[in-house]
C-alpha cells in the first residue's frame, strides 16, 4: 500500500445474550469504550474522528436502515456516516480505503448485531435465492452441512478432526473475557453431542451472540501521534464467488484464495505459514476452520485436518489459529470479521492477556458471508 | 406452452423479540403504570421522546434525569389517514380511517408525542385542541404504546 | 485529496412500476451491460463492484451475494452498502473511495430496487422504532406534508406553485426515455389529484419503481483512454442528522440546522463555490415530493430563503431556464430507491457530456451537482465537472 493506515483503538461489548439491551445500547456501549480508551472525539478540525463507517444488516435488526441504531451513538449528527451491509471485516476494508483516498484522516468503525432477537436460521433462509433454493428450506446451516459432508468425503476429514477444532477453540475462549461460552468440551463431548444438521453437531456451530465492536483507524501521521502501539493494515483483499453452492466446488474456497492472494500481494507476504504469527478467522462451523486454513494457504490443499492434528494451530503451535476461541466462542454475525481485527490488534499490541501469542508481529484477519463462504475478506495486520 | 412471466408469492414471517433497553424500557414500564416520562440530555437539556441512550447532538450518554409529563396536551399537527397503511406487526392493512396527531404534552414543550385521536370527525379536529391520553385499564396494560388506546378531546 | 476519479460510463434500465418479465438479477444485468458498453469496457476490465439496495424491500438478505453473476462480481472484490434512500449516493461515494485510494483502476457501481416484490410502504414502516412509533408510522408522506405546510405558512407559496414544479418535472420526464412516469399533466390536474396528507397530493409523490442504474468509475489514466468524455467527480460530501428528529420527536429551536446546509456548506467551501446558482450549471436533486423542492433549492443555496417558489413561478428551473433542476424528471417521476441516487449522478454526467438527448439543458453545462437524500434528513452530494 502506498500509504500506511493504522489502527489506534479497539473495543467491544461482551458477546453474551443481552436481553436488557436495546440495539442502540449495544453500539453506543462499544463506541463509548473506544472513545474512552483513545481519548478521541468527533471533531471537524482534524484533531479527532472525522467520519464513521457502520456495519449491520437490516434483516438481522428487523429494521429498514439498521444504521439508525448506531448513528447517534457513533457521532453521525451533521457528520459523515456510511453503512457497509456486509461482514465487519469489509467495514474495516472500506474504512482503510477512505483514508488511502485522502478524503478522511480518522474513521470510527462500529458493527453491531443482536442475534438473540430473532431465529437466525430464518434470516439466513432469506439469504438464499427465493425461487430455487429458499423454498427448499436451505439456510446457511444446511448448506454448510452439505459442504462439510463433501469435504469429509473428498478429503478424508474425520469427525474427530472437526471436534478438535471445537475443543481447541473452546479452551482458547476461556482466556477471552468477551466470549460467552463457559464450558470446556472434550472430543467425546463433541462427538456425542446432538446433531444440528448431519454431519454438524450443535457445539460445532457458532453459538448465538449479541454485541457490538468498534475500531478506530487513522493515517500514519495521526496514528503515531495518538498511540505508541499502532497496528498497521499491511494488505487487504476480498472476493465474491457464485451464489448457488451447486455451481461451486465446495471443497475449493476459491474466493478465499483470491482474497488472500490480493492481501498477501499488497503486504508482501509470500509464505503465510512462515510469515504470519497468528490467524483470527471466521469459522461459523468447526469444519470451516480447516477449510479456511487451506484457502489461506497455511497448509497444502486437503490437509486442513492434518494441520489441526499436528497441534500447529493450537496454543504454542507455529501458526495459532483463533487464539481468542474464534467464532465458536460466540461472536455475533456481522460483528464477526471486525472482532477478528480487534483480537488481532490486541495480539499485536501484546494486550491479549492469557491468550497472547508471544512475539506476535503479523496477524491474519478473515471475515466471510453467504452460504458456504460465498464471499471472503482478508486483511494482513502488522506491528 | 405459454411464456407468461411467473411471479411467485412467498410470504415472509419473521418473528422478532425486541429488547427495549434501559431507557425505552423505563418509559414503557412507566407507561404501564399510566405515566408518560421523557429523559433529559445532561448537556443541552432537551427532552427525548422516545427516550434514548445517547443525545445525537451532544453525543453524551443520557443519565437518569427522568421528567414526568402530563397525560394531557395540545395537538400541534394531525392527519386523517384514509389511505390504507400497512401494520408492520401483522403485514396487513390497518383499518381506515383513523386520526393521527402530534401532541405536545404539558410539561414537555420541546418534544411531540405521536398517537391516535378518538375524534374521527374532520370538522371537530383542529390544531391547538386539548386532548388527554385514555389508557387501558390497569391489569390490561403490557408496557406497549398500545397501552394508550387514544387521546380524547377535553375542551 | 486522492487520485482523480471520473465517470467513464453510465447505464440504466427503463424504469417501470412492474417488471414481471425479469428477476432482480436480470434487471441489474441490463444496467450493467449498458454501462460497460458506454465505457467501452468489458467486465474483465472492472477491478471491483459496489452494490446497493434496501434489503427489506425485496426481502433478500445479502442480495449482493444472490446477484453475483448479473452484477458482474464473480471472482471480484466488492461490497454492499445500504444507507436507506441515500444508498445509491453512498454506493457512488464508495466507488469513488475505491478508485481514489489508488488500489483500483476501475469500479462498477450498481444500484437497484425492484419494488414489485413487496409492498414497499410496509418495508418503509420498519424504519421506525418497533416499540415506540412503528405502530403509528405512515410512510414518508407526512414529512413532505410538514414541509409543505411550513413553507406555505412562512412564504407566499401556494399549492399552485408546488403543482407547477410537479408539472415542470413531468414535462422533463416525458423527454427521458428511461423515466417511469411520463405524465401529461397540468397544474389543474395536480390540484385535482387525491389528497394523501394535505397539502401533499398523489401527484406530488414519487412512484414505486423497478429499475437499476450502473456507473463505471475510472482513474484518470483509464478515463482518458475511454471513448466518452470523462466526467470528473471533483468532490463529495455526506451528512446525517440525529435520528430522533425523524422519529417525530423534537420540536426544533429555530433556525433549524439542516444536514443539507451543512453538507453543501462544506463542499462549497472546499471548492470555492460562493454563488451556487451561478457556478453550478445543472442540478439533479433527489426530490421525492414536489413539496420538498422549495426546501432543497434554498438549503442548497440556489436562492435565498423563502424565494424558491418565485423561481418556480418564473419557470427558471426548466430545461431552457437559467437554473435547470431535475432535467431527468427527477425522483418524483422515477424512484427505484436503491438506484435513485446513482441515477442522479448518471443523469448529471450525461448533461455534462451533452448526451442527454431531448432532456439536454440549453445552457453549456460545465458543472453539476447531484444528490441523494433519505431517512428524513440525510444527504449525500457530488460536485461534477467537465474540466479535470
Could you characterize the architecture of this molecule?
The complex is a heterotrimer of chains A (383), B (155) and C (388). Helices cover 35% and strands 19% of the residues of chain A. Chain A contains 14 helices and eleven strands. Chain B has 155 residues and is mainly beta. In chain B, the strands form three sheets. A five-stranded antiparallel sheet of chain B has the order 8-7-4-9-10, with no helix packed on it. In chain B, strands 2-1-3 form a three-stranded antiparallel sheet, covered by helices on one side. The N and C termini of chain B lie far apart (68 Å). Chain C folds into two domains: 5-120 and 210-231, Peroxisomal Thiolase, Chain A, domain 1; 139-206 and 234-385, Peroxisomal Thiolase, Chain A, domain 1, CATH 3.40.47.10. In chain C, the strands form two sheets. A nine-stranded mixed sheet of chain C has the order 3-2-4-7-1-8-11-10-9. In chain C, strands 5-6 form a two-stranded antiparallel ribbon. In chain C, helix 5 (87-100) packs across helix 16, helix 7 crosses helix 14 and helix 8 crosses helix 14. Chain C is globular. The two termini of chain C are 13 Å apart. In chain C, 68% of the residues are buried. Residues 246-251 of chain C have low confidence and may be disordered. At the A-C interface, strand 3, helix 4, strand 8 and helix 10 of A face helix 2, helix 3, strand 3, helix 5 and strand 8 of C.
Amino acid at each position: 500500500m502506498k500509504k500506511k493506515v493504522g489502527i489506534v483503538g479497539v473495543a467491544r461489548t461482551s458477546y453474551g445474550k443481552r436481553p436488557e439491551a436495546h440495539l442502540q445500547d449495544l453500539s453506543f456501549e462499544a463506541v463509548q469504550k473506544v472513545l474512552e480508551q483513545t481519548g478521541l472525539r468527533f471533531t471537524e478540525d482534524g484533531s479527532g474522528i472525522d467520519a464513521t463507517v457502520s456495519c449491520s444488516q437490516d434483516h438481522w435488526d428487523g429494521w429498514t436502515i439498521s444504521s439508525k441504531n448506531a448513528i447517534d451513538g457513533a457521532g453521525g449528527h451533521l457528520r459523515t456516516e456510511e453503512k457497509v451491509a456486509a461482514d465487519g471485516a469489509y467495514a474495516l476494508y472500506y474504512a482503510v480505503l477512505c483514508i488511502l483516498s485522502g478524503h478522511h484522516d480518522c474513521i470510527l468503525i462500529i458493527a453491531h448485531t443482536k442475534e438473540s432477537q430473532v431465529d437466525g436460521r430464518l434470516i439466513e433462509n432469506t439469504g438464499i435465492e427465493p425461487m430455487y433454493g429458499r423454498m427448499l428450506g436451505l439456510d446457511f446451516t444446511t448448506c454448510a452441512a452439505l459442504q462439510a459432508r463433501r469435504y469429509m468425503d473428498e478429503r478424508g476429514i474425520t469427525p474427530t478432526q472437526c471436534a478438535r477444532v471445537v475443543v481447541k477453540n473452546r479452551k482458547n475462549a476461556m482466556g477471552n473475557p468477551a466470549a460467552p461460552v463457559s464450558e470446556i468440551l472434550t472430543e467425546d463431548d463433541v462427538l456425542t453431542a446432538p446433531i444440528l444438521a448431519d454431519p454438524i453437531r450443535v457445539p460445532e456451530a457458532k453459538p448465538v451472540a449479541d454485541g457490538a465492536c468498534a475500531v478506530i483507524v487513522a493515517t500514519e501521521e495521526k496514528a503515531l501521534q495518538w498511540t505508541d502501539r499502532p497496528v498497521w493494515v499491511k494488505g487487504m483483499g476480498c472476493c465474491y464467488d457464485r451464489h448457488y453452492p451447486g455451481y461451486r466446488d465446495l471443497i475449493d474456497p476459491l474466493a478465499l484464495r483470491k482474497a488472500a492472494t490480493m492481501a498477501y500481494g499488497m503486504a508482501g507476504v509470500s509464505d503465510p505459514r512462515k510469515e504470519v504469527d497468528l490467524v483470527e478467522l471466521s469459522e461459523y462451523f468447526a469444519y470451516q476452520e480447516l477449510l479456511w486454513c487451506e484457502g489461506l494457504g497455511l497448509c497444502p490443499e486437503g490437509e486442513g485436518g492434518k494441520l489441526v492434528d499436528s497441534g500447529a494451530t493450537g496454543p504454542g503451535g507455529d501458526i495459532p489459529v483463533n487464539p481468542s476461541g474464534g467464532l465458536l466462542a460466540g461472536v455475533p454475525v456481522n460483528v464477526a470479521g471486525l472482532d477478528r481485527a480487534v483480537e488481532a490488534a490486541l495480539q499485536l499490541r501484546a494486550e491479549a492477556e492469557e491468550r497472547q501469542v508471544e512475539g506476535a508481529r503479523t496477524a491474519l484477519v478473515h471475515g466471510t458471508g453467504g452460504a458456504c463462504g460465498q464471499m471472503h475478506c482478508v486483511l494482513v495486520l502488522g506491528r | 406452452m405459454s411464456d407468461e412471466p411467473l411471479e411467485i408469492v412467498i410470504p415472509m414471517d419473521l418473528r422478532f423479540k425486541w429488547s427495549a433497553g434501559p431507557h425505552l424500557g423505563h418509559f414503557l414500564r412507566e407507561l404501564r403504570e399510566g405515566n408518560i416520562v421523557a429523559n433529559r440530555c445532561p448537556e443541552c437539556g432537551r427532552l427525548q421522546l422516545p427516550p434514548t441512550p445517547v443525545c445525537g447532538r451532544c453525543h453524551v450518554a443520557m443519565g437518569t434525569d427522568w421528567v414526568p409529563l402530563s397525560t394531557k396536551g395540545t395537538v400541534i399537527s394531525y392527519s386523517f389517514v384514509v389511505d390504507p397503511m400497512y401494520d408492520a406487526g401483522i403485514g396487513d392493512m390497518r383499518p381506515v380511517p383513523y386520526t393521527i396527531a402530534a401532541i405536545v404534552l404539558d410539561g414537555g414543550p420541546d418534544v411531540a408525542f405521536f398517537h391516535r385521536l378518538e375524534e374521527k370527525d374532520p370538522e371537530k379536529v383542529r390544531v391547538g385542541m386539548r386532548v388527554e391520553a385514555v389508557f387501558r385499564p390497569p391489569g390490561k396494560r403490557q408496557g406497549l404504546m398500545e397501552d394508550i388506546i387514544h387521546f380524547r378531546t377535553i375542551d | 485529496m486522492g487520485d482523480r476519479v471520473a465517470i467513464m460510463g453510465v447505464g440504466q434500465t427503463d424504469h417501470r412500476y412492474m417488471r414481471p418479465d425479469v428477476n432482480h438479477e436480470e434487471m441489474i444485468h441490463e444496467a450493467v451491460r449498458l454501462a460497460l458498453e458506454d465505457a467501452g469496457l468489458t467486465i474483465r476490465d472492472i477491478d471491483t463492484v459496489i452494490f446497493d439496495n434496501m434489503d427489506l424491500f425485496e426481502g433478500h438478505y445479502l442480495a449482493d451475494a444472490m446477484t453475483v453473476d448479473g452484477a458482474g462480481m464473480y471472482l471480484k472484490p466488492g461490497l454492499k452498502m445500504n444507507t436507506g434512500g441515500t444508498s445509491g449516493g453512498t454506493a457512488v461515494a464508495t466507488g469513488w473511495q475505491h478508485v481514489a485510494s489508488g488500489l483500483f483502476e476501475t469500479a462498477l457501481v450498481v444500484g437497484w430496487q425492484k419494488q414489485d416484490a413487496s409492498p414497499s410502504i410496509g418495508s418503509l414502516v420498519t424504519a421506525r422504532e418497533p416499540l415506540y412509533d412503528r405502530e403509528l408510522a405512515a410512510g414518508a408522506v407526512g414529512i413532505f406534508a410538514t414541509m409543505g405546510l411550513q413553507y406555505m405558512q412562512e412564504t407566499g407559496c401556494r399549492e399552485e406553485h408546488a403543482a407547477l414544479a410537479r408539472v415542470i418535472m413531468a414535462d422533463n420526464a416525458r423527454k427521458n426515455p428511461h423515466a417511469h412516469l411520463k405524465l401529461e399533466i397540468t397544474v389543474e390536474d395536480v390540484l385535482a389529484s387525491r389528497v394523501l396528507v394535505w397539502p401533499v397530493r398523489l401527484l406530488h409523490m414519487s412512484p414505486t419503481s423497478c429499475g437499476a442504474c450502473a456507473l463505471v468509475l475510472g482513474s484518470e489514466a483509464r478515463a482518458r483512454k475511454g471513448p466518452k468524455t470523462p466526467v470528473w467527480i471533483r468532490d463529495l460530501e455526506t451528512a446525517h442528522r440525529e435520528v430522533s428528529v425523524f422519529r417525530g420527536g423534537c420540536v426544533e429551536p429555530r433556525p433549524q440546522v439542516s444536514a443539507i446546509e451543512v453538507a453543501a456548506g462544506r463542499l462549497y467551501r472546499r471548492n470555492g463555490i460562493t454563488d451556487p446558482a451561478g457556478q453550478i450549471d445543472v442540478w439533479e436533486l433527489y426530490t421525492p415530493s414536489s413539496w420538498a423542492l422549495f426546501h432543497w433549492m434554498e438549503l442548497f443555496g440556489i436562492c435565498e430563503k423563502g424565494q424558491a417558489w418565485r423561481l418556480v413561478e418564473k419557470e427558471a428551473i426548466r430545461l431552457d431556464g437559467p437554473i435547470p433542476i431535475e432535467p431527468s424528471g427527477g425522483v418524483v417521476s422515477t424512484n427505484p430507491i436503491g438506484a435513485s441516487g446513482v441515477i442522479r449522478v448518471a443523469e448529471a454526467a450525461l448533461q455534462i457530456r451533452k448526451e442527454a438527448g431531448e432532456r439536454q439543458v440549453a445552457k453549456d453545462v460545465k458543472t453539476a451537482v447531484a444528490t441523494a437524500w433519505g431517512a428524513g434528513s440525510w444527504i449525500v452530494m457530488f460536485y461534477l465537472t467537465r474540466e479535470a
